[in-house]
Input
Amino acid sequence: MKRKKILITSALPYANGPLHFGHIAGAYLPGDCYARYERLKENEVLYVCGSDEYGIAITLSAEMAGRTPQQHVDLFHKMNKDFFDHLNFSFDHYSRTTCKGHKELVQQFFNDLLQNGYIEEKITDQLYSPKDDKFLADRYVTGTCPQCSYDKARGDECQNCGASYEATDLKNPRSKITGAPLILKPTKHWFLLLEKFREKLLEWLDSKDWKPNVVKFVKNYIEELKPRCITRDSYWGVPLPLPGTEGKVFYVWFDAPIGYLSATKEWAEKIGEPERWKDYWCDPDTKLVEFVGKDNVPFHAVFFPAMIMGQKQFYKLVDELPANEFYNLEGRQFSKSDGWYIDLEDFFKKYTSDQIRYAIAANAPETSDSEFSWKDFQNRCNSDLLGKYGNLVNRTLIFAAKHCDGKIPEMKDLEEVDRTFLNEIRGLIGQASKCYEEFKIRRASQIVMEIAQKGNVYFDAKKPWVSAKDPSLHRSMANTIACCLECLKALALVSFPIIPGTAEKVWHMIGQKKPFSQNRWNDLEEKNLLPGTQLPTPEVLFRKVEDEEIVLESQKLRSLSQNKQDPLATIQEFQKLDFRVGKVLSAEPVPKSDNLFKLSIDLGSEKRTIVSGIRRHYSAEQIIGKNVIVIANLAPAKIMGVESQGMLLAGKNGDTLEVLSVDTLPPGSKVS
Ligand code: 2FM
Ligand code: ZN
Output
């Protein structure tokens, strides 16, 4: 059988914040499972990924965090990489778009497109900050909404009324960072003439056997194609390779997909065969499989293919585009900034990467959005991994240690029930194989548990503990354990793409020495284990996840989110407070305090005693006679033994404190 060359990519994650399980479920775990499976099938697999490190979102976050963009992407690139390592990802190479060689490749793509007549320059009016001497992208702009006049509207849409518009439509546009006013100024940008690829794209798409909803969506998208701006005014990105274009860089979605090529080139350099990347990108026989989240489909099915079609050199177009839906966290999107997230450091102290890989695979968002919930996680861990998988491994190996001299027994004179069992397992292995080929890891994970469950039912039905007591049934007992060990081998095989760490352990626990990844799927499917092989002492694969843990995790999730809730006050809450003008009649130091005054205050209809921490900022003379603002309906509180019946308003900036006061309003006047 000829080995197929398969190039697998997973969408390059931004280096702009920590990744979470939502990302993993979309473009990553399915890619890793597929790569692991195809390697077992002896294909020549190359699986590449890397961090997407340019773009305006990154400069904005970096500036907000007080970092340079380079420091910012260095930080999150490392975090991305560590996260994938933690989850036992098997990339052959994990690169980054700031890597050596990426810039030149992007510029070459542009030059080819330009020379082939697919790029046009246009002058348009854009928002410019005279103070900062630069053009600002939408994300950097705020202003007054043209529709509802909300004065802190974003550059692309208004968060108050939902209107969407061009940043140039905003009234009173300002820089989000410095507040500097912006003006309209003409500037030149470069546009990719996507509509020129319409016919070619449609024809190419017709040759694809993708999910019907993906094809339908992409076809509609192609019909609507128009020129798309591929440059931005920024200092962070791949610069344009044309004279007089300082300050212009490529739009991140122009450079990012080229990152797949530069990652492959970097891999080739790494292995010391710099031309090897061509085996993948320039050979029409290579199968290119790009795993993406559904929001990335247009870029991979239209934008990047068009860029490739416009090249002088032949590069592979995507063959398969497995696109998953979204994976949420208990009904909402994962969001660190909203406090709706899982603390990964804490998670990995308590749970293993295989537990989460399995939980995600078992509920992968292949056909519709799905979600992680702590309850479901507990259920997957306890009922499936521990109750079905772990149970079969454990009971088989303990039994073999006790009643079969700790060795793999020989299979001889099998009964019908044994043969049926082995055939059913073989049938399930075949089904799993098909699932992996079709990117259906959800069904594959079910098959893993069906195999384990079949093993448990068979074990129960054969009752080897009964045959162990009767020497005339020892042959039957040995066959039972030999068949169960075959079942464990099948479990290791079929579960390896999803839970590689566990599969590897099972593989060693059934007496096998070489690393599991060196196996071939077909060999394991066809050949039985060698009788007489010594079985090592089994170890426990999974621990029980207790109810209390799950209650605590759920509480933690909710409290993290509560703490992050925007502390907005309603108008009713504000109206509850009674602000009044009060005249300070006297001010006495509170004994044993160096900052408190006991103030006597005239509120018009009554006098109040208020204790206030202003003595380091005001002398008695300075404060007496002032018409200050008081919250008059605050519940009384004892401060240093003195009952305070209200509070003075004051502003503070560093060490400067200033009590709010009015000049002409008489005591008792209401302030609102
Ligand atoms: O959506 C994202 O996370 C993008 N960074 C994906 C880029 S995929 C590829 F084109 F690089
Ligand atoms: Zn608005």
Remarks:
- The mean pLDDT is 94.
- The chain has four domains: 5-108+255-329, 116-233, 353-526, 571-671.
